[in-house]
Amino acid sequence: NYTASGHLQALASHIGPKLVDYCVVNKDPIPQERIKNYEQEGASALKIDKEAVLGTGCEVAEGSLLDKKSNYIHHDPAALASVIMNLISESKKTRPHAKRQQ
After folding, report:
1. Neighbour-count burial for 68-101, b at 16+ CB within 10 Å, e otherwise
2. Burial class (CB in 10 A: 0-12, 13-18, 19+), 11
3. C-alpha–C-alpha distance, residues 62 and 44, integer Å
4. What is the pTM of this model?
């Protein structure tokens, strides 16, 4: 029964604040039959609370991340990697690495 912001708060309480810059989330609806698999176990899908995530100082990066081959709610590794690589690429454009002092 976690929220995205709850995950970030848990990380901050264990590791410290300002560690996470981006929260990568799935933007597509989850099919009801997959949700039922979790409800039978007393679990639920993660709730994406964008405003609360933004309130932590994190940016939200959305993508179509649901693994379409699984009967469970899993990320598609290639789709997740694509979102992360896009974030890295955009970061390099807006914040190029400083040259090292020699």
Report:
1. eeeeebebbeebbeebeeebeeeeeeeeeeeeee
2. middle
3. 20
4. 0.79
Question: 102 - beta bridge partners?
Answer: none
Query: Distance between CA 91 and CA 102 in Å, rounded?
Result: 24
Q: Are 4 and 48 in contact (CB under 8 A)?
A: yes
At 46 the pLDDT is 85
User: Phi-psi category of 79—alpha, beta or left, where left has phi over 0 and alpha has psi -120 to 50?
Assistant: alpha
Cα angle value 77/40/28 (rounded, 5°): 35
Alpha carbons 31 and 99: distance in angstroms, whole number: 48
Q: pLDDT by residue (tens digit) across 59-101?
A: 999 999 999 888 888 899 999 999 999 999 988 877 665 444 4
**Tokens in use for 80?**
């997740």
